[in-house]
Each structure stands twice: as structure tokens, then as C-alpha cells.
Design a protein that fits this description.
single chain; alpha/beta; Rossmann fold; 5 strands
Amino acid sequence: MAEKTYTVLIVDDYEADRFFLKETIRQHAPKLHVVAEVGDGEQAVAYLSGEGQFANRKLHPLPDVMILDVRMPRMTGLEVLEWLQKQNFPQLKIAMMADSSSAIHRAKALALGVEHFYSKIMGHGEMIVLVKRLQDELERGERGRFL
């Protein structure tokens, strides 16, 4: 019997950040599977809505976890969270990353349902802890707050 895996959507406008996060997941959180990575909030909404190129749910399944950057072009991570608040959406665990740990961004993200808020300036060891923590929480059945 195959072990349960959990799907991950990475939303970040910096390709290098997406790459390092994806590699950390691959190397240190084997039950997490990155199903997609997109570069801005509008693409995240399209993915979550199953619109356009993301319409085929077999190719683009709904994620169990979304790792979301705060500042992006077209639509910020906070705007994606505000959009999610208005949707009838399945449970989704969200980790938000910012290039600073601004108290204002953190407070707003937590109020919008984010369970984890991290600085993108973290070291590799801290990133390993982040992905392992997300995997462990999913294994224990801890889902996000969006219903």
C-alpha cells in the first residue's frame, strides 16, 4: 500500500526561491509533493479556481498546502488570502513567507487564516524545519482554517 502524500502549491514571484523551496521539500519532506508553482497571486487564484490552463484537476489537483509569498506582482499574497476568505474552499494549510518579518504583514496574514509566517531570509536549516513541520502537521491531520 502506498504511503499518503500531500500536495503543495508554491506561489512566489522569484524563480530561485521557488527552486530552493522545491528542492528542500524533495530532499527533506518526502510525503510532500509539489504539484505546481506559480509566480503571482493571479495565477494562484486561477490554479485554486481551476480556471484556464489549470482546469484539469487530474493534472492540477487542489493542494493540501500552499506556500505563499507576501509581496508579488499583480496580486499580493495578502490579496490571495482575502480572496480565499470569500470562497467556499476545502481546507487548506497555508504558510506565508515574506522578505521581511514585518509585524503588520504578519498580523494581517494571521488574521486571514495563515498558520505559519516565515522570513524569506531564513537559513537552509530553518527551511528544512519549516517543510518538516508542515509535513508532520498534515500527518497528524491538522488542516488549515479555510472551509
